[in-house]
Design goal:
The chain is of the alpha+beta class. The chain has three domains: 84 residues, Ubiquitin-like (UB roll) (Roll), CATH 3.10.20; 85 residues, Sandwich (Immunoglobulin-like); 333 residues, Deoxyribonuclease I, Chain A (4-Layer Sandwich), CATH 3.60.10.10. The protein has 17 helices and 29 strands. The strands form seven sheets. Strands 17, 18, 19, 20, 21, 24 and 27 form a seven-stranded mixed sheet that branches. The chain has a six-stranded mixed sheet with strand order 3-2-1-6-5-4. Strands 15-16-14-13-29-28 form a six-stranded mixed sheet, covered by helices on one side. Helix 10 runs parallel beside helix 11. The longest helix is centred in the first third of the chain and has 26 residues. Keywords: Exonuclease, Hydrolase, Magnesium, Metal-binding, Mitochondrion, mRNA processing, Nuclease, Phosphoprotein, Transit peptide. InterPro entries: CCR4/nocturin_mRNA_transcr, Endo/exonu/phosph_ase_sf, Endo/exonuclease/phosphatase, PDE12-like_N. GO terms for molecular function: metal ion binding; poly(A)-specific ribonuclease activity.
Amino acid sequence: MWRRLRSALRRLRRSPAALLAGGGRPPAAAAAAAMERAVVRCVPSEPKLSLRFVLPDGSARHMQRDQAEPLGRALARIATNAAKGPAKAAKKSKKARAEGSPAGEAAVAAPAVRLFSRDGEAVAEEVPNAAAWQDGAVLQIGEAQYRVERNPPALTELRLPRSLLAGFPVCPKVSAEFAAPQHCLFRWYREQRPAGGGGETAGGDGPAWVEAPGGERVFTPSNAMVGLRLKLRCTPGDGAQRYGPPREVESSGPVEAGPGACTFDSRHLYTKKVCGQGSIRAVSYNILADTYAQTEFSRTVLYPYCAPYALELDYRQNLLKKELAGYSADLICLQEVDKSVFVDSLVPALDAFGLEGLFKIKEKQHEGLATFYRRDKFSLLSRHDIAFSEALLSDPLHKELRDKLAQYPLVQEKVLQRSSVLQVSVLQSATDPSRKVCVANTHLYWHPKGGNIRLIQIAVALSHIKHIACDLYPSIPVIFCGDFNSTPSSGTYSFINSGVIAEDHEDWVSSGEEERCNMPLSHPFKLLSACGEPAYTNYVGGFHGCLDYIFIDKNALEVEQVIPLPSHEEVTTHQALPSVSHPSDHIALICDLKWK
């Protein structure tokens, strides 16, 4: 065997002219002939590359080779593999023939195997695989020629949402390697409605599909498509006119009727376009985590007025994606974001509308915070997320507060038990690199009697933000969004707004005398609630009040416009929130800001 291989390799060392004389064609001639593909996947972080091709006899080959291995050894292995098929055929032929037939005894020689660069030069056998297998090279195996495609665009995941509503955008989850969703080609199809009302074609071969107009990544089914399933055909592309093999996916169920008018429809009239380069449209929204909506307590006590199907995650996500997409925002700060919702729903949807997402999960929880920013307006400079309890325990920034809190062990224990987090992102303007902004996002402790806990949490938050916006990036403006679980009459709101909190403020005893903790606090920022103090941002059966805010640095930013909240009539159409026309128990805050 080795003698035959060495002989084959000696034949391979002949020049392209010699190959031509021997019946082979050099790569220059290959351009005129249709070539099969040899797909190479070579990633620097991995020790091996993979090679896939189909031999002339129709058998597929998938090889893994060390990237540092000399090309000659890989070619020898290909020659061996290529000889296996004919060898097996010869063996079968030998059994079929009479014993001693010369045709049956003939040995099968390994074919000549060679790799040529794009310009037709033979690639030396000592070149490492990683450098040898370049895009556009030609692999020759005997008479067969293969065009090498190195790291071609490929889809790794293509998925449609489980729930489809007429009038609501369908955003597929598209994951690709060596490709980007914005460069992929999308073709949408709907089922053809059979004349007889059945679900299949007359031949019984499954549904017939009709191409739907559009061809965009996001597709909005019309009312005429209610009762029909959808199909998506996606061809991955890399933006350099290279396209990989397409994949198709069909929806698991049909398009269903939408709810009609939603609470956010009138708000979208103010946000049809992205605001100009000198402005920032910011959104803060507690979207109601599925982990809290899908409990017996939620269905029977918190939201008994809400139709059960309207509490289902898939249904609410349809509404939420349409709502958020329609705000044309530059910054979106979300609270109560389930990790799976972020990965499988929000990222694919908002990415399609030009937004990049960041996530910070709460310790011991399945939900957390998400910040999205518009890619063509901002780039991410740095992230500075913290968990309040961990930062309070270990960060030298909070030593003074930590020492004060140590005098109140009951309160200290409660603070350290909380899983609340702070998400901080420093963004840089894409058009004016001198403009940077510190975007903070949080969700403070929820308990009505937890005012003292919230004061400690916000003190940690503002101290941390001060370190970033004053020390690390001196004098950059702050936008601080979140569900602060604090009404305008609370100590937390007063502290943020005024910069100080007295040690005798009533919130220090909000949990009772045994958990009293008195300490004066201050911070250096001049912060303003950009959306003012609405009558409510949270409206449920047993409570309504203003808990959510977008605080801005009033020395550097000013409010251009505040998008009006839904009317009281819209909010209470179905008694309270959430409802069939509103996906959360909170209402999004939206404002347009501009640099001073």
